[in-house]
Amino acid sequence: MPGKTPLRIFLIVVIGLMLRIGRLRREYVRRVRWFGALSFTIDRNSKTIAQAANAVLFPAVLTAGLLS
Question: Where are the transmembrane segments (predicted)?
């Protein structure tokens, strides 16, 4: 079906972003010792980003599963 291709591209992009955010979070968690409060703020922000991405990703994955 031609309509599925944009959804697949979208999922690949979103999953790539999630992985990148996860990698960034690990970096920030590692730096907590040195940057203290600054790093904590960044970590909190990246958690919010990850939660927002999950809120978008979960329905998208469900929809893709139902369509396939």
Answer: 6-23
- Res. 35: pLDDT tops 60: no
Which residues have CB under 8 Å from 46's CB, separation 6+? 21, 24, 25, 28
Q: What is the pTM of this model?
A: 0.31
Supply the pLDDT for residue 6: 79
Around 17, how many Cα atoms within 13 Å sit in the side-chain half-sphere? Answer: 15
CA–CA distance from 61 to each of 8, 16, 25, 55, 57 (Å)?
Answer: 10, 14, 23, 11, 6
Check: CB of residue 65 under 8 Å from CB of residue 8: no
How far is the C-alpha of 56 from the C-alpha of 44, rounded, in Å?
Answer: 19
Rounded to 5°, the CA angle 14-15-19 comes to 120
